[in-house]
Amino acid sequence: MSDPHIVSSFDDELKYLIRRVSEMGGIAERMGGDAIAALVNSDAGMAQRVISEDIVLDEAERDINERSILVIAKRQPMAHDLREIMGSIRIAADLERVGDLAKNIAKRVVAVEGSGQPKKLVRGLEHLAELALTQLKEVLDAYSTRSTAMASSVRQRDEEIDAMYTSLFRELLTYMMEDPRNISACTHLLFCAKNIERIGDHATNIAETVYYMATGAQLLGERPKVDETPSVTAAGK
User: Fold this and answer.
1) Domain assignment of residue 84, given as a range
2) Contact 185, 117 (CB under 8 A)
């Protein structure tokens, strides 16, 4: 935050937004980790808890949006303060989407239960999730410290998630072509992999917002993207 304002209640309102965004970040991060754990361990109970937690994020986003509108109306903020408020709205929207993606993964748990997914694919899914959730954790740290260096690093590493997603996509496609009995389970895992990759994209969105909040400038250059799934075929085809 910038220097204290003459009206202390203005500072309190900005601090409230920061606290609520941080709370949302913690919930979204936990939901993502629990959704993957539920999928890997076929834990329907944990999956249901993830699904039920999504409403908490939805309510938090609405609260942040309503509070932000009130602050803008009352205080008519300028420059840095306005960036703080608009940044809170944008980050809250990204975190709400992360929650939706975690819920989507949790919903697949029952569908793939007992399908005997190949361990190699499950490990690949876990590794992809580890990368995406690490990105989310680091960008939330960047938000709390307003670290432009960390925000830039998170944005740059998004291509690692894309590359791993492309590799996993190819493997899943190969398993489906080798044995039609794998199609149902692998299709669900494909959706899970895409949801995880999208969590990484939202972490990158947050990184760009954090950088803008701290500097008032946009990160230069095109966002690194190496998702090649549109042109992927099964191995050996």
Assistant:
1) 8-231
2) yes
For residue 202, being part of any structural domain is answered with yes
CATH code of the domain containing 147: 1.20.58.220
- Sorted by sequence, the CB contacts under 8 Å of residue 59 that are 6+ apart come out as none
Cα separation, 187 vs 168, whole angstroms = 12
Lowest mean pLDDT among 83-87, 145-149, 183-187, 225-229: 225-229
Can you give the pTM of this predicted structure?
0.89
Burial class for 220, CB neighbours closer than 10 Å (0-12, 13-18, 19+):
exposed
Phi first, then psi, for residue 27 (nearest 5°) are -65, -45
Q: Which residue has the tokens 């949302």?
A: 24
47: tokens are 């999956």
Could you tell me if 208 and 218 are in contact, meaning their C-beta atoms sit under 8 angstroms apart?
yes
Q: What ranges in the chain are assigned the alpha helix state H?
A: 8-41, 44-75, 79-107, 109-112, 119-145, 148-156, 158-178, 183-215
Q: Tell me the three state secondary structure of residue 20.
A: helix
**pLDDT beyond 90 at 210:** yes
